[in-house]
Amino acid sequence: MQYLASYHYLAAGLTLSVLAAFTFVVLRRQWPILLLSGLLAVPPAFFSCEFIPAYWNPRVLFHYITSLEDILFSVSVGVISMFIALLPYANQVKCQIDYRPMAKRFVLTFSLLISLWVVFRTALPEIFFVMPLALALIVALGIVLTIARRDLLMFAVRGGFSFTAFYLCILLVIKILQPTFFNSWNPAAQFPISAYGIPTYELLWALVYGCVWPLYIAFVCDLQIMQESKTVYGPEQASPHTFPNSR
User: Fold this and answer.
1) CA-CA 20 to 30 A from 208: which of 2, 37, 141, 227?
2) Other beta carbons within 10 Å of 94
3) pTM for this entry
4) Does some domain include residue 130?
5) Which domain covers residue 211, as residue numbers?
6) Is there a domain that residue 247 lies in?
7) Residue 172 burial (CB < 10 Å; 0-12/13-18/19+)?
8) Beta bridge partners of 56
9) Spatial CB neighbours of 19, under 8 Å, sequence gap ≥ 6
10) Three-point CA angle 41, 47, 49, nearest 5°
């Protein structure tokens, strides 16, 4: 415990990993979707080198392009955000995963995001700072996905606000137990206004990520939410009709 006390980011990552593991117990039927959401969150962790030390500089065990802590965090929030979004629709989810189209959709969209990131960061690094640029690209992806999957709009919005509330609680607990962890953020790179000493960009990231990541996984995995019937099937069952797919 003394060792973890000096590695706050590692302690937070391990705690989130335990919570992520617990989600598989709660939503046992949706474990393939949760697992894919976690695995597909690994590649974004390799962008942590773009944020260190410009945005923040936490103490980690090692850092070469990425770190163990970054991977733990990325996988855990990938699972937890998807769990939070899925929870209200636990009995309405339909997903027959076809790995070849799924891999194709993921590679194409992720490659496009990487390309845009490199272009903006290389051409105008003084204007496109890391966190605002990351948020802008995620929002742009979210807009495109919402147009493609309008049937999942409420799925994304509910998930986003719920994940933000969850992430705020985590940050408040950390602030109480390990307030020095907040020295990891670069003050010069933060939004002028903070909420109870919590970096505003972190809350904006939680809202944007909580909306877009589950929507992105739903798009990649071709997830459908069955329309709940109020007459024939009752509140606990789903009808065999899906919401209209706008694609």
Assistant:
1) 227
2) 12
3) 0.87
4) yes
5) 2-242
6) no
7) middle
8) 185
9) 76, 80
10) 140
